[in-house]
């Protein structure tokens, strides 16, 4: 084998051996051993194995009929319910399940109304009017010592 043939085979071997690594790096699939609750959104930074809870609001932030809105690591959330009845409190991701638009709360109609296609949801995320067919995704929450906590 001469030098030119050797370099051709070595180059082809190097390219072929790096192809799986390049494909894996381009993949958007992330695997996890955690098993989140159906419809729940994971909170970055907290792991299900640890059972980590993160405060996202306090009961004093809630006003009946007006969702408290904020962000968790850049993802929107809206919490609603009666602060005197912790079992009534829910937290949803106000991102429309039809087309992914962030759905603001409309104080007049007392609904989340999608600015993209007009879908509407009640304060607990249930679909009131299409085109969306699925409720807003919900966060798993817990109320403890006057704080509203979420876990992955």
Write the layout of secondary structure elements.
Blueprint: H1 3-26, E1 53-58, E2 68-72, E3 75-80, E4 90-92, E5 105-106, E6 111-113, E7 120-121, E8 127-129, E9 138-139, E10 141-144, E11 147-151
Antiparallel strand pairs: 1-11, 2-3, 3-4, 4-9, 5-6, 6-7, 7-8, 10-11
Question: Strands of the largest sheet, in order across it?
Answer: 2-3-4-9
- Low-confidence segments: 27-50
What structural class do you assign from the helix and strand content? alpha+beta
What is the helical fraction, as a range of percent? 10-25%
Describe the global form.
Answer: elongated
Q: What is the averaged pLDDT score?
A: 74
Helix and strand sequence = HEEEEEEEEEEE
CATH superfamily of the domain at 53-151: Rieske [2Fe-2S] iron-sulphur domain
What CATH architecture label of the domain at 53-151 applies? 3-layer Sandwich
CA radius of gyration: 23 Å
Tally of strands? 11
Could you name the CATH class of the domain at 53-151? Mainly Beta
Q: End-to-end span in angstroms? A: 59 Å
% residues in beta strands: 25-35%
Count, helices: 1
Biggest sheet: strands, sense, closure? 4 strands, antiparallel
CATH topology of the domain at 53-151: Rieske Iron-sulfur Protein
Task: Give an overview in words.
This protein has 152 residues and is of the alpha+beta class. The protein has a domain at 53-151: Rieske Iron-sulfur Protein, CATH 2.102.10. It contains one helix and eleven strands, in the order H-E-E-E-E-E-E-E-E-E-E-E. The chain has a four-stranded antiparallel beta sheet, with no helix packed on it. A four-stranded antiparallel beta sheet has the order 5-6-7-8, with no helix packed on it. Strands 1-11-10 form a three-stranded antiparallel beta sheet, with no helix packed on it. Strand 2 and strand 3 (75-80) form a beta hairpin. The protein is elongated and about 85 Å long. The relative contact order is 0.18. The model is unreliable at 27-50 (pLDDT under 50).
């Amino acid at each position: 084998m001469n030098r030119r043939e050797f370099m051709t085979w070595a180059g082809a071997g190097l390219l072929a051996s790096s192809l799986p690594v390049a494909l894996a790096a381009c993949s958007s699939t992330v695997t996890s051993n955690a098993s989140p609750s159906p419809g729940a959104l994971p909170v970055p930074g907290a792991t299900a194995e640890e059972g980590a809870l993160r405060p996202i609001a306090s009961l004093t932030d809630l006003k009946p009929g007006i969702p408290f809105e904020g962000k968790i690591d850049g993802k929107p959330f809206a919490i609603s319910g009666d602060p005197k009845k912790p079992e009534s409190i829910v937290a949803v991701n106000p991102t429309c399940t039809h087309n992914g638009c962030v759905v603001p709360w409309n104080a007049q109609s007392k609904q989340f109304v999608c600015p993209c296609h007009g879908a509407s949801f009640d304060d607990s995320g249930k679909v009131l009017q299409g085109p969306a067919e699925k409720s807003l995704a919900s966060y798993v929450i817990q109320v403890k010592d006057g704080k509203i906590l979420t876990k992955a």
